[in-house]
Amino acid sequence: MSLKWEGIMPAVTTKFTDGDTLDLKMFETNIKAQLNAGVHGIVLGGTLGEASTLLDEEKSTLTKTTVNMVKGQVPVLINVAEQSTKAAIAAAQKAETDGATGLMLLPPMRYKSGDRETVEYFKAVANSTSLPIMIYNNPVDYKIEVTLDMFEELLKCDNIEAVKESTRDITNVTRIKNRFGDRLKIMTGVDTIALESLLMGADGWVAGLVCAFPAETVAIYELQKAGKIKEAIEIYRWFMPLLELDINPKLVQNIKLAEVYTGIGTENVRAPRLPLHGNERQHVISVIEAALKARPTLPNYKNLSTLV
């Protein structure tokens, strides 16, 4: 299927059993909830997916399982985050074999590559696969920024089509649009500035708290797209304390705990991560419980023509 870079694409969590194996039953429960809410794509094996702890065969299993589940309803992307160009090429080619629709591609891991090295890394991976690619630009967490000048060179590769824009600078949305128009699609990647980024022209949102609250996330996107900004802002303001759980070193544990409260996940994480405890846990629980008490009644966001 062709890949439309738009809408809500959950960066889904990876579900584990108590024995630290893939929990595909709970994973399916969560994916079904995402699809029922109307998401526009699924992103596997990202930061929230605990990518750095997954074995290659587990990534392959997740990809194949998701492709079989969604049956072409939405695109399925797998994250590529490797330490060497050789390994990244192998991962991209395996993803294509496994049936992925596209790739989310990070800069080299561990080694802080220079601009030229980063560009050559991305180009080598792009040239090794026919899959469409979204470059993940997150200098805050990964210490490598993909500048507009670097994108100028990268866009010579036809299958580099989008950026997951996570610089935390909303003005970058305008800079990208001014420089590249629709040639480089923008998927905002920071939950706490997502609506602002969408209103400034981002095409979609690779979201985190959507893992626990899929309907509310999709509703915000659909409402703002339909020009119902006031309604979107009202939900977004309710959502903000939860969204702030995403910009935290314990985002995986935070969001998995929220998934428990909404019935579509477990707290199981893979070591060295451990479930939240003590005051940290109580704080997150208080945020989740307060949000659930005030949870808004959503409009019929899947059929906005019926709204008054």
UniProtKB/TrEMBL annotation:
Pyruvate binds at residue 206. The lineage of its organism: Bacteria, Pseudomonadati, Bacteroidota, Flavobacteriia, Flavobacteriales. Keywords: Lyase. Belongs to the DapA family. GO terms for biological process: N-acetylneuraminate catabolic process. This is Dihydrodipicolinate synthase family protein. The active site is at residues 136, 164. One of its GO terms (cellular component) is cytosol. Its EC number is 4.1.3.3, 4.2.1.41, 4.3.3.7. Pfam families: DHDPS. GO terms for molecular function: 4-hydroxy-tetrahydrodipicolinate synthase activity; 5-dehydro-4-deoxyglucarate dehydratase activity; N-acetylneuraminate lyase activity.
